[in-house]
Amino acid sequence: MTHVGVLGATGAVGQRLIQLLDPHPEFEIACLTASDDSAGRSYRDAAKWRIETPIPDDVADLDVRETDPAAIPDDIDLLFSSLPSSVGERVEPDLCEAGYVVSSNSSNARMADDVPLTIPELNHDHLDLLKVQRDERGWDGALVKNPNCSTITAVPTLAALDTFGLETAHVATLQAVSGGGYSGVTSMEIIDNVLPHIGGEEEKIETESRKLLGNFDGAELDHHDADVAASCNRVPTLDGHLENVWAETSEAITAEDAATAMREAPSLDLHSSPDQFIEVFEEPDRPQPRLDRMVGDGMGVAAGGLRETSNGVQYNCLAHNTLRGAAGASVLNGELLVEQGWV
Ligand SMILES: NC(=O)C1=CN([C@@H]2O[C@H](COP(=O)(O)OP(=O)(O)OC[C@H]3O[C@@H](n4cnc5c(N)ncnc54)[C@H](OP(=O)(O)O)[C@@H]3O)[C@@H](O)[C@H]2O)C=CC1
Ligand SMILES: N[C@@H](CC(=O)OP(=O)(O)O)C(=O)O
User: Fold this and answer.
1) How many domains does the structure of the chain reveal?
2) Which one of 67, 99, 105, 226 has the lowest number of neighbouring Cβ atoms within 10 Å?
3) Mean pLDDT for the stretch of residues 239-247
């Protein structure tokens, strides 16, 4: 068993990590951290558990520790990080320097040249950037990131379309409230409403997509040159980001070509990777957040509403933002790190 720790374990993503890691056949939760306010309390007491499955008893009895390298036991093999990015920026490099391998969901350092940003089914080869990272930073540990939840929703479909030469992608998002964390948006702000701004989100989709779709030659990563533009909206759904995408390709493409390319997007043999990576619906009114966010046990991507435009295709896509878009993405990266021998 690989002994793992969860940083930011009491939060929205931290709780999802525990939900996924507790029954995991390869990982054993051995350490939990959160803010100083929670440190020293039992997890049951510190975490306001809001997941639909019960809080696991063995985890509930663990003590929450400070988020500090000195507080992490030496026998932890792998850390999952779901800290606020300002905290991740400060703490994650210290942990890597202290020798820990960190699979992080926080947005800090996602765009750093020597930090792999991975969706294993798409760009598992980018993990070899860790050789560059260790050479440059002198770390015994390692830092790997998963992308922003809205980015993860669209990029698998864009990667499938790239077989036809992706040139442009315009994305409009309808993002669930859980994306903002437990204290993100208040009910007075979001009920009977749509918020047409999510700070920093558009730039993340635009830049992270190009890094994910880029080419790694073993030394340097070339970002894809597609023109990606995004517009982000918060809507009153609980989980599941729905996105409208307009993609243009250099080669002619039909809606049927696009559906086939998406359906054929390869999956991996990792524990958390879904059997079918992208599920394409024929019904024009699918995917929908309430009906389809659990495709592939919450680790799949759903697409539908495909139709041709003058230079490409238009469609809708959806993924569960705290599973495939956050906690599940970190766990999958953890499985890849183990499989490739970094842990
Ligand atoms: N929610 C989502 O869908 C997604 C979230 N993310 C990212 O994941 C990260 C976590 O998000 P989320 O779970 O929603 O956030 P929450 O606010 O729900 O949880 C934050 C966690 O970090 C801990 N924390 C807060 N301040 C500190 C500190 N100073 N030192 C140590 N620990 C601290 C909290 O502990 P305590 O309980 O003690 O305060 C809590 O465990 C963020 O970077 C977010 O941007 C990414 C993709 C999707
Ligand atoms: N901003 C996303 C969630 C998030 O926290 O993203 P990031 O991991 O890039 O900080 C949302 O609101 O749905």
Assistant:
1) 2
2) 99
3) 98
Pair (92, 163) in one structural domain: no
170 falls in which pLDDT band (50, 70, 90)?
A: very high
Domain shared by 205 and 190, yes or no: yes
Q: Is residue 52 located within the same domain as residue 73? A: yes
ipTM of the complex: 0.96
From atom 2 of ligand 2, which residue's Cα is the shortest distance away? 179
Q: Containing domain of residue 31, as a range?
A: 2-147+326-339
Q: 180 and 51, same structural domain? A: no
Of all protein residues, the one whose alpha carbon is nearest to atom 41 of ligand 1 is: 8
Mean pLDDT, range 108-132, rounded to an integer: 98
Active-site amino acid positions: 149, 241
pLDDT exceeds cutoff 90 at 193: yes
Stated pTM of the model? 0.97
Residue 195 confidence (pLDDT): 98
Work out the widest C-alpha separation in the chain, in whole angstroms. Answer: 60
Q: Mark 182-212 as b/e (b = at least 16 C-beta within 10 Å).
A: eeebeeeebeeeebeebeebbebbbbbbbbb
Instruction: Tell me which residue has its CA closest to atom 38 in ligand 1.
Output: 35
- Beta pairing, strands 78-81 & 101-104: parallel
Going from the C-alpha of 114 to that of each of 142, 162, 294, the distances in angstroms are 10, 24, 33
User: So what's the pLDDT on residue 39?
Assistant: 98
How many Cβ atoms are within 10 Å of 170's Cβ, its own excluded?
16
How far away, in angstroms, is 166 Cα from ligand 2 center?
Answer: 25
> Both 261 and 206 in a single domain?
yes
Identify which of 89, 150, 183, 231 to mutate to test ligand 2's pocket (most ligand atoms within 8 A of the CB): 150
Which atom, in ligand 2's list, is nearest to the CA of 180? 12
pLDDT-based confidence at residue 38 (cuts at 50, 70, 90)? very high
